[in-house]
TrEMBL record:
Record organism: Elysia marginata
Identification of the protein by name: Malate dehydrogenase
Record field: catalytic activity: (S)-malate + NAD(+) = oxaloacetate + NADH + H(+)
Ligand binding (NAD(+)): 84, 108-110
Keywords for this protein: NAD, Oxidoreductase, Tricarboxylic acid cycle
Gene Ontology MF terms in the entry: L-malate dehydrogenase (NAD+) activity
UniProt binding sites for substrate: 71, 77, 110, 141
EC number, UniProt record: 1.1.1.37
First-tier enzyme category under EC: oxidoreductase
Annotated family: Belongs to the LDH/MDH superfamily. MDH type 2 family.
NCBIfam families recorded: MalateDH-SF1, PRK05442.1
GO-annotated biological processes: malate metabolic process; tricarboxylic acid cycle
Residues forming the catalytic site: 166 (proton acceptor)
Length: 310
């Protein structure tokens, strides 16, 4: 049995955590022989329930930051900024004091990118690379759209990229993606053969998927969000092999994006360390979309900083 991991899930009484806790407990994220927190004969976890961040984050190895207000119909994710950003300031301050310095953090609570940025700013003793936000749900949605269009399984589609913000300005990009059909691997644009669909309907469907779910359910996505959070953390701990996955990570200026923004990039993960996939050709269409979502993130970050300092 591997060493016990301490995993924090904030917002543990909410919709997303309802599925997330079960998946962590049955070994979908950290492996079937990995104890979480303390040993327990039936499940792989022992639970400490607390509303004290200094207790919750003490010695944390991994944190799923889900606790935050969800948006309702008619709202954009950035409308949650005022309500949620201060939660992340306080939690960052607690993590800074009591978490392990190699804690791996995924922010799910919206606006996820900017909340992750704030969390990291208020936990300066923890490396910035340890803070990420979730765009895996968008990646899974994009993959599913392409798979359905081509009549193949989701796992036959790889290297779909989500650039930028987890919001309606995100840029789902299949220019570098491939699909395996009857044993043959081909670029997605070649297989789909419909540039207009890929540049319009496909992008819009993925950008608007969160809103469509809220409209239908009057609640935001829950099980699919939990699944995506597990995918993200599992890949971070276990690696991606040759494939790329998308996650919001701190920008180092790659692809001309403002340094310090929490921007979704394609990454490879090895030895629990992510690195941005470099050298991709960016055409004019992509450039415009990547810059538009970066501009929104810049605005969000400036507003969030003002809120935190108020
Ligand atoms: N990044 C992504 O792809 C997605 C993000 N989300 C976001 O995830 C967040 C959670 O969604 P749900 O689970 O559906 O919401 P929910 O309302 O069912 O659960 C949120 C939980 O957080 C708790 N909470 C509120 N303030 C807290 C604080 N200061 N500390 C700890 N816990 C606190 C609430 O009491 C509640 O139990 C929302 O912000 C939602 O918009 C949802 C789907 C996808
Ligand atoms: O749209 C929302 O507010 C919830 C969410 O982030 C998603 O489903 O992608």
């Amino acid at each position: 049995m591997a060493e016990t991991l301490k995993v924090v899930v904030t917002g543990a009484a909410g919709q997303i955590a309802y599925s997330l806790l079960f998946s962590v407990a049955k070994g979908d994220v950290f492996g079937k022989d990995q104890n979480c927190c303390k040993s327990c004969p039936l499940f792989l976890l022992d639970i400490v329930a607390t509303d004290d961040p200094m207790v919750a984050f003490k010695d944390a190895d991994a944190a799923f930051m889900v606790g935050a207000m969800p948006r309702r119909e008619g709202m954009e994710r950035k409308d949650l900024l005022k309500a949620n950003v201060k939660i992340f300031k306080a939690q960052g301050q607690a993590m800074d004091q009591v978490s392990k310095k190699n804690v791996k953090v995924i922010v799910v609570g919206n606006p996820a990118n900017t909340n992750a940025c704030i969390l990291s700013k208020y936990a300066p003793s923890i490396p910035k690379a340890n803070f990420t936000c979730m765009t895996r749900l968008d990646q899974n949605r994009a993959q599913a759209q392409i798979a359905a269009k081509l009549g193949v399984g989701n796992d036959q589609v790889s290297n779909v990229i989500i650039w930028g913000n987890h919001s309606s300005t995100q840029f789902p990009d299949v220019a570098h993606a491939s699909v395996t059909i009857q044993g043959k691997t081909v670029p997605v644009p070649e297989a789909v053969k419909d540039d207009s669909y890929l540049k319009n309907e496909f992008i819009k469907t993925v950008q608007q998927r969160g809103a469509a779910v809220i409209k239908a359910r009057k609640l935001s996505s829950a099980m699919s969000a939990a699944k995506a959070a597990c995918d993200h953390m599992r890949d971070w701990f276990c690696g991606t092999g040759d494939k790329w996955v998308s996650m919001g990570v701190i920008s180092d200026g790659s692809y001309g994006i403002r340094e310090g923004l929490m921007y979704s990039y394609p990454v490879r993960i090895q030895d629990k360390t992510w690195s941005i996939v470099q050298g991709l050709t960016i055409n004019e269409f992509a450039r415009e979309k990547m810059d538009a979502t970066a501009a929104e993130l810049s605005e969000e970050l400036d507003a969030a900083m003002a809120e935190c300092e108020a």
